[in-house]
Amino acid sequence: MLPDCLQRIHTPLLHRGQLTRGVGWALAAAVGYGIDFWLLGIYITPVFGGIMPVWIIRSTTICTLALFAMPARQSLHWPPQKAWWLIIPIGILDTMAFLSVAIGYTTDQVSVVSVLASLFSAVTVLLAWIFLHEKLQWSQWLGIVIIFLGVSLVKL
User: Fold this and answer.
1) What is the pTM of this model?
2) The CA-based dihedral angle spanning residues 19, 90, 97, 23, taken in that order and rounded to the nearest 10 degrees
3) Measured between alpha carbons, how far is 71 from 18 in angstroms, rounded to an integer?
4) For every one of its 156 residues, what pLDDT tens digit does the chain have, with 9 covering 90 and above?
5) Which of 130, 126, 109 is nearest to 41 (CA)?
6) Half-sphere exposure of 148 (CA within 13 A, CB side)
7) Vertex 17, ends 12 and 20: CA angle to 5°?
8) Residue 19 has what DSSP assignment?
9) What is the pLDDT of residue 47?
10) Under a CB-based contact definition with an 8 Å cutoff, are residues 113 and 104 in contact?
C-alpha cells in the first residue's frame, strides 16, 4: 500500500518531466527521518542514552524490512558472497553514524546535531562528483550551497 501512495505522489509530475523517479521515496524518507530524529532527540535519548535506542532500532529494522520488502518489490535473499566486502563496511559506517547522532542528542543540542547530521546528503553528492565524475546541475550546486548556508544559520 505504501508504494502505491508514493507512486501517486510523483507520477503526475514525472510524466510532465519535472521530477525524477524516487522523489516520492525521498520525500517519505525526509518525513520519516525528521520524525525519527525529533522523537529520538527529544524523548528517547534523554531517558535511555545514545546506545540502547540504536540497539532497539536496529533490531526492529529486521522486522520492518520483512514487512515492506514484498510491497516494495525488493528481495530479502542474501546477496552474493562477493558483495559482502562492501556491505559489511557500509553497515558498520551506517551504525557508527547513527550512534554518533544518538549520542550527540544526549548533549541537549538536538537541533544542531540534526542539521549537521543531515549534511550526509551533500557529502554523498560531493563524493559522487569527485569519484564518479557525475555532472552536477546548477540546481544541485545551489542545493549544496543552501544546505551549508542553512547549517551556518543554525549555529548563529
Assistant:
1) 0.69
2) 10
3) 26
4) 444 444 444 444 445 556 677 788 888 888 988 898 889 988 999 999 999 999 998 899 888 888 888 888 888 888 899 999 999 999 999 999 999 999 999 987 888 888 788 888 888 888 988 999 988 888 888 888 887 787 777 666
5) 109
6) 8
7) 85
8) S
9) 92
10) yes
Rounded to an integer, what distance in angstroms lies between the CA atom of residue 145 and that of residue 16?
A: 27
Query: What pLDDT was estimated at residue 91?
Result: 92
Residue 142 belongs to what H/E stretch? helix 138-155
Q: Which residue has the cell 525526509?
A: 30
Reduced to 3 states, what is the DSSP secondary structure of residue 138?
Answer: helix
DSSP readout, 59-112? HHHHHHHHHHTTTTT---SPPPGGGHHHHHHHHHHHHHHHHHHHHHHTTT-HHH
Phi and psi at 77, nearest 5°, equal -70, 145
Q: How far apart are CA 112 and CA 155, in angstroms?
A: 7
